[in-house]
Amino acid sequence: MTDVATMMSGFEFEYPGVLLLLLLVPPLSWWVGRRGPLPSVPVPTLRGASQLGSIPRRQAGRAQLFWRLVPLVLLILALARPRVPRGEVPDPSRGIDIMLALDFSRSMAETDFRLKGRRVSRRDALVAVTDDFIEGRGNDRIGIVCFARTPWLVSPLTLDHGWAMASLKESELATGTGIGWAIQASTTFLKQDSDRSRVIILVTDGDNSAGPRPLDSAPVAVRNGIKVYTILVGPESVTPSAAANHELNKVARMTGGLFFQAQDARALGNIYSAIDQLEKRELVQKRYVSWQELYPWFAGAALIFWLTGTGWTQLVRGRVA
């Protein structure tokens, strides 16, 4: 019983105004079911009337009325489109666009991070924490650019986060670290949509070793109104004075983002959570709900009742005949 109640939670009619037609059922029921006069045939004499059997009343009994009106009621209910919600669908017109620029250079193979009590590579920790971050942002379109010496597109902006993560897990490490190229590539994939907030989250474990400097690429993001959050991962801690002059920190400040350091998987997860809270849009989200339509069941039941009633009527008439 509890399962049925849960399944029917949120039941509604898409066109409730159609239900007003049910008000016509009682007078129609009275009109169709009224009993008429006894059938009669004028005769010149009653002689021989004793040989006749009992005279039946008109075929309009309660059973026949039932088989006529129930299909009508069910059809009216079907026209009102009964339905139950199956779940919410992400609103593609809300949320923000996020491009993840992830360092997949050879140094990310270093196994100096710990995840769930075991030692893992920086790459595996980054993939696991990224997966958790993406899972919590159902309304955001997320794309992924991986980079080594040059960047490559892993996933364009999409709401299909499962597909994006599957593509990321198949990506392989390469040589070099082209942070400036990664910022430019991520900006290119973000600036195609100008009516949404846009953010780049860049994660790297080293300094730029190929292509333009990050500071030379940052103005491209600034011109397009894109914030860049930068995260430096690795066991070595950068001192506050060095962090203030770090090129990744300057890029973040120039674009309106923030600079973070992550020495282990837990710290990286906390940074992702902090960015998640910073980039929550304070607006009323529209609810897109997928529905399970129930009108075929009502229409099918009406057809069954109508066929059953027709069969019953034909049977009764056959017996009378």
TL;DR of this structure?
This protein is of the alpha/beta class and 321 residues long. It has two domains: 2-29 and 61-88 and 289-320, no CATH class; 97-278, von Willebrand factor, type A domain (Rossmann fold, 3-Layer(aba) Sandwich), CATH 3.40.50.
Properties at a glance:
about 325 residues; alpha/beta; Rossmann fold; 2 domains; six-stranded mixed β-sheet; three-stranded antiparallel β-sheet
Question: Can you describe what's shown?
Answer:
The chain is α/β, with parallel strands linked by helices. 41% of the residues lie in helices and 19% in strands. The chain has 2 domains: 2-29 and 61-88 and 289-320, no CATH class; 97-278, von Willebrand factor, type A domain (Rossmann fold, 3-Layer(aba) Sandwich), CATH 3.40.50.410. The chain is built from 11 helices and 11 strands. It has a 6-stranded mixed β-sheet, with helices on both faces. Strands 1-2-11 form a 3-stranded antiparallel β-sheet. A two-stranded antiparallel ribbon has the order 4-5. Strand 6 (141-147) and strand 7 (151-158) form a beta hairpin. Helix 4 packs parallel to helix 10, helix 6 runs parallel beside helix 7 and helix 7 packs parallel to helix 9. The relative contact order is 0.15. Mean pLDDT is 79; it is low at 54-60 and 282-286.
